[in-house]
Amino acid sequence: MSILSSTLSSNYSPQPHSTQNRNSYISVDSTQLVTLVFIVDSFSFSRYELSLKYLKLTVLSIESQALILLINPDGFDNALFCFCVCFRYFAVFARHSQGTVNSIALYFIFYFIFFVQRKVKLGSNSLSTGFVKTKSFNRISMAVAVNVSRFEGITMAPPDPILGVSEAFRADTNEMKLNLGVGAYRTEELQPYVLDVVKKAENLMLERGENKEYLPIEGLAAFNKATAELLFGADNPLLKEQRVATVQGLSGTGSLRLAAALIERYFPGAKVLISSPTWGNHKNIFNDARVAWSEYRYYDPKTVGLDFEGMIADIKNAPEGSFILLHGCAHNPTGIDPTPEQWEKIADVIQEKNHIPFFDVAYQGFASGSLDADAASVRLFAARGMELFVAQSYSKNLGLYAERIGAMNVVCSSADAAASLEIAQLSHDPRVKSQLKRLARPMYSNPPVHGAKIVANVVGDPALFNEWKAEMEMMAGRIKNVRQKLFDSLSAKDKSGKDWSFILKQIGMFSFTGLNKTQSENMTNKWHVYLTKDGRISLAGLSLAKCEYLADAIIDSFHNVS
Ligand code: PLA
Question: How many angstroms separate the CA atoms of 271 and 292, rounded?
Answer without folding.
Answer: 5
